[in-house]
Amino acid sequence: MSNIIVPGFTAEGNTDVRFLESVIQRTFEYVAFECHTEIEVYDITYISSGKSSFVDEMLRVAETAYDRGIMVLCVHTDADDDSDKQAFEKRIEPAFRAIHSFQDKPVCKNLIAVVPVQMTEAWLLADVDLLREELGTTKSESELGLNRHPETIAKPKALIEDAIRIVFDELPKRRRRPTLSDLYLPLGQKNQFGEIGTIALFH
Question: Side-chain half-sphere of 69: how many Cα atoms within 13 Å?
């Protein structure tokens, strides 16, 4: 009989959820595949968080995760800086300390921090060929203005929206123009920036 992992995660916003769900799931599956024993990874469960303080919300999420049988809880927060130092010092570490010391109710204490330094939209640019495929265009990276390294782009969201406009301004008006929010889920599911690369998200 195989061992099992029941993963869960919480994220800051709806777009992060759509993008990260598949990325985190695939990373667990990749790690499990590399293990010497057989491990079955269950489908990941998302737990929403509210607008209270980060520590209070993560305590509530950890309690909910325990109640749902989640074995490992991934906690996402954006760095909002040039490094993840501030995110860890001000949000992740205080929340994790509070969860590990919490005694009032059972909570999930197997925690993984997911702290991307670059905003989610920069990750969408990790595979420009896939982005072009999703937009259904044969235009080149240069024509779409996507021929720069994602980490050098100050406003990746605006750049992707400009690329969408360039593609669809020349197409018949009856063809539905996708929005940026339409791209998070398929790119998160298909992006091949690599399971090894995604492990860099996990601390």
Answer: 6
Instruction: Tell me the three state secondary structure of residue 148.
Output: coil
The answer regarding whether domain 3-117 maps to CATH 3.30.70 reads no
For residue 162, the tally of other CB atoms under 10 A from its CB is 14
Could you give the CA distance from residue 11 to residue 200 in angstroms, rounded to a whole number? 17
Task: Check if the beta carbon of residue 201 is closer than 8 Å to that of residue 114.
Answer: yes
Listed in sequence order, the residues at least 6 apart from 175 whose beta carbon sits closer than 8 Å to its beta carbon are 168
| Per-residue pLDDT reduced to its tens digit, 26-71 | 889 888 888 888 999 999 999 999 888 999 999 999 999 999 999 9
Under DSSP, the state recorded for 43 is P
Q: Are strands 39-41 and 72-76 parallel, antiparallel or unpaired?
A: unpaired
Q: What is the pTM of this model?
A: 0.74
Contacts of 172-180 with CB under 8 Å at 24 or more apart are 178/134, 178/135, 180/121
Q: Residues 153-188: pLDDT tens digits? A: 778 889 989 999 998 887 766 667 788 888 888 887
| Domain range summary for the chain, segments of one domain joined by + | 3-117, 121-183
Give yes or no for a contact between 6 and 106, defined as CB atoms under 8 angstroms apart.
Answer: no
Residue 151 tokens, joined:
């980490």
